Amino acid sequence: MSLMRIGAFLYSTLRLSTPLIFAALSAAICEKAGLFNMAAESMMLWGALIGVMVNGWTGSVWVGFLGACLAGVVVGLLIALATVKGKADLMLAQIAINLASTGGTIFMLFVVTGDKSTSAMTIQSDTLPKIFVPFKKVPIIGPMLNKQNILTYGAILAAVILYIFIKRSKTGVHIRAVGENPNAAESVGISVSKTYFLTWAISGLLGGIGGAFMSMAYTSAFTKNMVAGRGYIGLCASSMVGGNPIGAMFCAIVFGVADAVANQLQLTNAPVDIVMMLPYIVTIVVLIIISVIKMKAHARKIRSKAQKA
Amino acid sequence: METHKEALKMENITKIYPNGFVANKGITFSVMEGEIHALVGENGAGKTTLMKVLFGMEQAQEGKIYVGGKQVKITSPLDAIAKGVGMVHQHFMLVPSMTVAQNVTLGIEPRRHGLVDNAACIKMTQDLSDKYEFGLDATATVADLSVGLMQKVEILKALAKGAKVLILDEPTAVLTPQETRELFKQLKLLKENGHSIIFISHKLEEVMELCDNVTILRHGYCNGSYPISDLDEAKLSRLMVGRDVVLKIEKADPKPGRPILEVRDLEKLSDTGKLVLDHVSFTIREGEVLGIAGVEGNGQSFLSDCISGMQRFDGGDILLNGKSIAGRKISDIRESGMSNIPEDRMTVGCVPTMSIMDNVMADRFERRENMHGLFMDKKKALKITDDLIKEFEISCDDRSEAIRLLSGGNIQKVVVAREFTSGANFVLANQPTRGVDVGTAEMIRKYLVRQVREQNIASLLISADLNEVLEVSDRLLVMRQGKIVAAFPKANMVSEDELGEYMLGIKTMTPDEMEGLL
Prior knowledge:
Chain A is an all-alpha fold. Chain A has helices spanning 2-32, 40-58, 61-85, 90-113, 141-145, 150-168, 170-180, 182-187, 192-218, 230-240, 245-266, 272-308; strands spanning 130-131, 148-149.
């Protein structure tokens, strides 16, 4: 019995981690390019809405998924356009986009469906396929992996691909060079502005997929504000590990655990509103712990060096 | 007489900036294959602009550029690289967290199976480094390298991209004497391999030692090209500034009075936990200049920041006019007699976007005598500014224009003017003449000495320029790895060679030898 519960808990953790992983990766590639991505939230929101809408129109969940990807990319490119071409302040542009997206998605939902809160009643949309594993009888691992959405596997794959891309591909090397010393990159003919555009596009793509998971896997409809800060949690996950995609994935899973715990507690008598705060409180606590650890390590290093000297 | 092919020719280059400033006027010079060609001139003479035109960063109004005998139009740095012109910038264009190989091959990475072929990158870099005897490890991380090695990486970057003509913009400014010698050896090797080098420098002895020919710029005009063998340093400096630069500074013997600044057992840890100031102690008295020589990065900047109050220290104490400065605000420290000519004039020394007047008044607008009611007394401020502009011969069109529009030398004059007239009795001068033209440098040095003697104030001079630190200082200390490793009672009696031995760690004085000299 308890093994099954562990399996179910891990299943829930992985499922809840999926959007966080995509958000973290979306922030990670930006971090490598020296950019601060606060807009994963918007990329996901638009991805979630457009995915459902395109799915409803075309009747194909995969075309809907493509729509979600595209929506994320458009949001990313919009930020690039405003900040690279338009020389707008990056932070302000992202705050503006986030505010506009919160309202904008609800407005678009209302225009299309007449409903201001959810597409569940009005748009016929499906969920992306689940993967059935042959070893579902194996304790813990079986229930953990069986019937996970394809995007959950996609998230892990994306982290690995992004890691290799950043580390080994020509474009990835250029992104890192731009992130660390734009002048150096420019001086050898790497276009900094093109690199920023590309980075935002990839970041938007990842955010868009994260959004698609929210409305086309986690649930089967768009609900207003359904991203609920996951973009920011992803940003935290990425910055804890300096933008390393694999590390960002594991950090995202830590937050996924908090999410899963909150979900479990909702089934008990614990007050729901406080339980819902859990993932966010964990985010703050983890951030503090990490920075304390870093400070301690730093102080230790200083002491040991001083003793040597 | 060997016959060489012409590698590069700039003909009749005229560059006028949109604000009407004529930076280059009809400049013509050429560089042969296998030649090291010096480009010298005071600050603001037009060297930088000319090289920007050559490297495609600026477009000239008139003139032609020939590379390898063919007329070319260079529209961007990339274009310049494609045509075989490479530039080693004064501020390195490197990505610190990447390896030497990744930096060298950045932008031209060899690929295999769609990914960057790291092995090929390393091989390519290592081969190039070995060919020119650079002694670099292609797999080392750039952040761990010394400045000298970083510069080599910069040169390799240009070579890897096929540069035949290399522009080096004041390459020795950041190097130790030893590294400079090594650089020269390598540049000569490059020359033997048929590369042409344009060597921009303020240091005449280096030009004399290294270069084959020299082109002199003065106020935007070309003042002729000469074979080095026809010139000596005195002649060259006359061509540059139109008068003899006196490298000797005449001064009376100091009569040190009461102590002004006392540094006692000063300790400082850097952010990374390195002990960057290791029990540093010395005293500076009224009427004397104490010089600190040393290879850059041996704690001089930390010492300067601790004394000026910009950084806190971790042990020991600093007394200014008998009072500890520990934990006090900078304005408070300045009130008790500190003035500071900082190393980095553009970020610490002045506010680049503000006018000369605002910059001059920055430390004194709050004083009662300069106030008019609640506000600064504008009339008085203008008078103070005008007086200083006149006294320090600051050349500017308008005292209300942003200070960043002035040349480096004139900006430094503004900083020096403010710091010497703040009423302080201690002047901290950290690299006061760096990147400043010869004429201004001479003026600043003489002014420093005169003020110290006449006003009976004390000064600490930190400088990487050996000539300066030997000529201006009365007493001299040498810093290495955060420690004082030598002390000399008479700076102008020390030879550069002897100083070099202490700076580079060949010799160290024992505490007994330094007894009484600190």
